Amino acid sequence: MTGPYTRGDSFTSEASRKHIRRALGDYGATDVLFTQRGNQSAIAFKGGGRQFRIVLPLLQSEGALAIRGDVAEGPLHEANAKVLERANRKSWHALALAIDAKLAAAAAGIATLESEFLAHVVLPGNKTVLDELKPVIDSAYRSGRRPSFGGPALP
Fold this sequence. Notes:
This protein is α+β, with helices and mostly antiparallel strands. The protein has one domain. The chain has five helices and three strands, in the order H-H-E-E-E-H-H-H. A hairpin with a 2-residue loop joins strand 1 and strand 2. The model is unreliable at 1-6 and 64-68 (pLDDT under 50).
């Protein structure tokens, strides 16, 4: 049986963000920034000569946990808000744990910061490596053919 600590229930979203900021700062990352737009939060930072952006989807009152207009201010609304808050709190806690693990691997020399966060490297044009490669990878799996990434990049 898991207790509140192991489920991430005892951490607020703000506490997880503070932990992330501190962990990244301890590793030497700079310009750590948290933003939110709609149902997505993002963390951006610089480290190892690169810029990184991690997008964290958050649950909102639309979609699967939507509130009908006729109960928007009653007990169901309060219960729904608690469910959403708990789910988002757990997401922030999970992200904090993932970042801790990635930074620990980089600090131990098992990996580099860039290899651990490769999908989140921001490229010129403000897209991440994942944004650029996901359609290429999806197409390769659909076609069954290895994608061509071109020749080596020139300086």
